[in-house]
Amino acid sequence: MSDWLSYTLSDFLLFSPRTYFRLLELYNSDIWPAQIAALLLGFAVLGLWLRGAARRGRAVAAILAACWLWVAGAYLLSRYDTINWAAKYFAVGFALEALSLVWVGIVRNRLVPTPPAGIAGWGGLAIFAFALCLQPLAAPLSGRPWSQVELFGVAPDPTAIATLGILVAAGRAPGWLFVLPVMWCAISGATLWTMQSPDALVTPVAALLALVLAGCKAPRAAA
Q: Are 152 and 39 in contact (CB under 8 A)?
């Protein structure tokens, strides 16, 4: 038992920071110009949400589901799996979230855009906008090159955070849809913390904020 207590998170890290960020760089190079399409889809989500209407909620859900499925296959299973044996299980989680978004948002139409109102409505959209526009700046602000940037729709962290923002802003999103995005944010934050990355707290703090905002909304929804 005492031997286990002597371990730290770094003892379980399967790769070096150099390897991890180099993988992101190679991934970005391989999929170019998919990043442009992903950013356009992100702004489309924002526009659809601000314009409201129930049928636009289905379009938002379809875009988010496609992004989660892309990350599951193109990044986690095809790239991250080469340096982390757990990546295949992460990919399954991302695929499950994609299917959940299809079920809840498209089949049942429960991701209905509502006009931003109150701290939860505006806060959710602010979280989405952060993931879309500001989180990519984490790479250059941390001293890494732009080639290692992480973008909504093609990288897991901003995709998870952006989805949490939409779930907070939505009026009828079930709570269990939060589980997998929040779990990923915790895993990613722990990984970056172990690698002593300056932006390690960004993803878990954003997830925590989303949960707080969702909690603020819950009493009004129950009423």
A: yes
Helices 34-51, 156-169: axis angle to 10 degrees equals: 10
Range of the domain at 177: 20-216
pTM above 0.70, yes or no: yes
Residue 98 half-sphere exposure, CB side, CA atoms within 13 Å? 19
CB 169 within 8 A of CB 128: yes
Q: Give the number of domains in the chain.
A: 1
Q: Say what the pLDDT of residue 1 is.
A: 46
Rounded alpha-carbon distances, angstroms, from residue 95 to 33, 68, 103, 133, 138: 23, 7, 12, 25, 26
In a domain, residue 71? The reply is: yes
| 156 DSSP assignment | H
pLDDT, one tens digit per residue, over 89-99 is 999 999 999 99
- For residue 98, give Cα distances in angstroms to 72, 91, 181, 214: 9, 11, 11, 20
Residue 200 counted as domain residue? yes
What is the rounded average pLDDT of the residues 40-64? 88
Rg for the chain, CA atoms, rounded: 17
Nearest to residue 120, comparing CAs of 161, 163, 164, 168?
A: 168
